[in-house]
């Protein structure tokens, strides 16, 4: 990394120039080179206009959750406690990996038995890149948006892909 002040060639990742002690940390920050990168790096997740969260109480049955998901055409439901706080998420993946082919008597069982408890969440000011990073690391397709521990929305990979597609068309 070349120091912009003195021209010294520093080891990549250096925080300051080994010759003049100039701060080099700003040189390592990524910069957006197009509209898509700028949106991912700067726009909050609220730019996606997250849909209202579909919630069920933890006492709801798996059968109720499945019917709700089919009727509303969604891939995940947020599971809340009696105070309205997020307790978990129940997704298609939970259904396939924790229920299907494993339990025969699942329809009447509480969704809390199979949900993903204490899921990763995002806040309204988190960037799209931050949300995508969480999704990538955890292998998630849905992330709850929370405010004061209560569900405020849900974003999905599909929402982000639609946003990127719109940016590419413009």
Keywords:
single chain; 170 residues; alpha+beta; CBS-domain; 4-stranded mixed β-sheet; two-stranded antiparallel ribbon; 5 helices; elongated
How much helical structure, as a percent, in the residues?
A: 25-40%
- The strand count comes to 6
CATH homologous superfamily name of the largest domain? CBS-domain
What is the strand content?
A: 15-25%
Structural class: alpha+beta
CATH class of the largest domain: Alpha Beta
The helix/strand series, from N terminus to C terminus, equals HEHEEHEHEEH
Number of domains: 2
The rough form would be described as elongated
CATH fold-type name of the largest domain:
CBS-domain
Q: Main sheet, how many strands, which sense, barrel?
A: 4 strands, mixed
Going across the biggest sheet, name each strand in turn: 1-2-3-4
CATH architecture of the largest domain: Roll
What distance lies between the first and last C-alpha atoms, to the nearest angstrom?
36 Å
Question: pLDDT average, as an integer?
Answer: 92
Radius of gyration: 22 Å
Counting DSSP H or I runs of 4 or more residues, the number of helices is 5
Spans of at least 5 consecutive residues whose pLDDT stays below 50 are none
